[in-house]
């Protein structure tokens, strides 16, 4: 493998005042991710958000995390819940992800959901359900990082997850994994 040298003083990087939220959103969108719905019953009604920042954190203890904008009006309600339902959305859930990311009053209109005994809400047909509780919250810039303890999981292995890339929803290609050599 050889190093490629950038020609001239303009190396193609963007920085300083040009590093705007619009530029950053486009750059961050180059990284494909899954989409999770984070939901609970609050005051007798389902409440939820969509998060493309959902990631696994630790196996011991079992932890996951997501990042939520400080401007979210739903997250302050959700973080009061004893349990949160995290649903890794399926490739058929593009409209569900859009609804949960929107500001409409009834985000759950037309969404099939299941409530467990703890009050966690799960989206029907999702690839994975995780019953979680808040482990730690950390403010980071204009977001809050919520670390969640995983209490229970239910996998739906025949369901393919949705992928979010370049501000659009995609289906995963079914060509199989790369060889392990």
UniProtKB/TrEMBL annotation:
Flavin reductase like domain location: 28-171
Keyword Oxidoreductase: yes
Keyword Lyase among record annotations: no
Gene Ontology MF annotations: FMN binding; riboflavin reductase (NADPH) activity
SMART domains named in the record: Flavin_Reduct
SUPFAM superfamilies from the UniProt entry: FMN-binding split barrel
InterPro entries from the UniProt entry: Flavin_Rdtase-like_dom (IPR002563), NADH-dep_flavin_reductase (IPR050268), Split_barrel_FMN-bd (IPR012349)
Pfam families: Flavin_Reduct
Keywords in alphabetical order: Oxidoreductase, Plasmid
UniProt record similarity statement: Belongs to the non-flavoprotein flavin reductase family.
Listed name of the protein: Possible flavin reductase
Gene source species: Rhodococcus jostii (strain RHA1)
